[in-house]
Design brief:
With 423 residues, the protein is an alpha+beta fold. The chain folds into three domains: 64 residues; 230 residues, Hypothetical protein af1432 (Orthogonal Bundle), CATH 1.10.3210.10; 72 residues, no CATH class. 38% of the residues lie in helices and 12% in strands. The protein contains 13 helices and eleven strands. Strands 10-9-8-7-11 form a five-stranded antiparallel beta sheet, with no helix packed on it. It has a four-stranded antiparallel beta sheet with strand order 1-4-2-3, with no helix packed on it. Strands 5-6 form a two-stranded antiparallel ribbon. A hairpin with a 3-residue loop joins strand 7 and strand 8. Helix 9 packs across helix 10. The longest helix is centred in the N-terminal third of the chain and has 27 residues.
Length: 423
């Protein structure tokens, strides 16, 4: 249950669902997090923020108000305390139920460490890819999309992200070039659900967005294979045929029972650009739905970090730099900043070289400093030999004169290493 409380009622063990402040005005990387240290609690108290939303299903509840009867009231009321803006900010819908003893959180939804979720996330990704391959194959031969299959994929993806977002998000970079189309669809779904949760959208909206993200490229099933999988550059004529997939998608999706307009908009508008240079309609700025704007960002990020039949995958750090440079032109600049805050300057799973001469893989973003994540050291770069693995929080130096730092990203191919083997 989402509940708004004054910061004076915060205590350790609570799960902060949303901070009632513009994201650039508070010191945290994420709007939602466990209140698991006195340091975080003090930062909130010192920030000038007056209210936060807590999720009592994921953490402890606020102390119930005293009453004469000592029993919980049975009546409940809900109020919509705000609205989304074009930049994707959202004031959560707050339940006004009289608080009592919170029910135990479902074990499958409890946040867990990356190493615990990564294996389950691989199974989720594998199953989602298989289902999506079948869905697109059906669309290719003119069959109707099975909405229950799409809902199933969106459900298991959302559950994994609730347990540990970084696990499934990090795996989106693992693809086979010959299976790009359906694997890319799953990855866009994962990234879009994660970003919508970061922005604080309610569950039903996130579900619709995930539905649209999974099917955003469904129109490509009307594009001839020789164009869709061409290993070289497309001719001008071929590119026009390729671009038609966005305009074809709405007609395909409207045949799916129960699909939302939000999901249809995502498929139709994810190639529109903020400055009006996109396709198929040449929409500009806020003419583009906010969820299509979000999809445009994650679609480009995933495409550029993926190996294709005609190109190698780009390093995520370089892709983020390019997306950042395109903010305000191709993309909504505020949404780009929120995406970077979510994914991190050095995304989880990135191989990095350290000033100390060690090779490490990024494990977790730091809430206050995107340049100093938590990493796992496993190799001496100079000697090219493995060392005893150890986890280091680069934001917490052992001594002021022994501060380690990331020098830059490293290519896994250079070291013949799979970074995900060390997560």
């Amino acid at each position: 249950m989402i509940k708004r409380i004054p910061v004076s009622q915060l205590r350790l063990g609570m799960f902060v669902h949303d901070i009632q402040s513009r994201w650039i005005k508070h010191p945290f990387l994420f709007n939602s997090f466990f209140l698991d240290s006195e340091k975080k609690l003090q930062m909130l108290l010192d920030s000038g923020i007056t209210e936060v939303d807590i999720d009592t299903d994921k953490g402890v509840d606020a102390a119930p108000p005293r009453s004469d009867s000592g029993h919980r009231a049975g009546a409940a009321a809900e109020s919509d305390t705000g609205s989304r803006t074009s930049a994707g900010t959202h004031s959560a819908k707050v339940s006004q139920k009289t608080p009592g003893a919170p029910p135990p959180p479902p074990p499958s939804m409890m946040p867990i460490p990356l190493w615990q979720e990564i294996h389950r996330a691989r199974d989720v990704q594998r199953e989602a890819n298989s289902v999506m391959q079948g869905i697109l194959a059906d669309v290719r031969i003119g069959k109707q999309i099975k909405g229950e299959e799409v809902e199933g994929v969106v459900g298991v993806v959302t559950d994994s992200i609730l347990r540990n977002r970084d696990a499934l998000v990090s795996l989106t970079r693992i693809k086979q070039k010959d299976n790009y189309t359906f694997q890319h669809s799953v990855s866009v779904c994962v990234l879009l659900i994660s970003l919508c949760r970061e922005l604080g959208y309610e569950h039903a909206t996130i579900k619709d967005a995930g539905f649209g993200g999974l099917l955003h490229d469904v129109g490509k099933m009307r594009v001839p294979d020789e164009i869709l999988n061409k290993p070289g550059a497309l001719t001008a004529e071929e590119f026009e045929i390729m671009k038609s997939h966005a305009a074809l998608a709405p007609d395909i999706l409207r045949q799916t029972p129960g699909i939302s307009q939000l999901a249809i908009d995502i498929a139709a508008q994810h190639h529109e650009r903020y400055d009006g240079t996109g396709y198929p309609y040449g929409l500009m700025g806020e003419e583009i739905s906010v969820f299509s704007q979000l999809t445009a960002i994650v679609d480009v990020y995933d495409a550029m970090t993926s190996v294709r039949v005609y190109k190698k995958a780009m390093d995520p750090v370089e892709v983020l730099r390019k997306i950042y440079e395109l903010r305000s032109f191709h993309f909504n600049d505020q949404l780009v900043l929120r995406f970077i805050r979510m994914i991190g300057i050095y995304p989880v799973g990135t191989l990095v070289g350290l000033k100390s001469g060690y090779l490490a893989v990024v494990l977790k973003q730091h809430q206050e400093d995107l340049l100093r994540p938590q990493v796992r050291i496993f190799m001496n770069m100079k000697r090219r030999c493995m060392v005893r693995m150890r986890d280091v929080d680069l934001s917490q130096p052992e001594a002021p004169d022994k501060q380690d730092a990331i020098v830059g990203p490293e290519l896994p191919s250079r070291w013949e290493i799979d970074p995900f083997a060390y997560l």
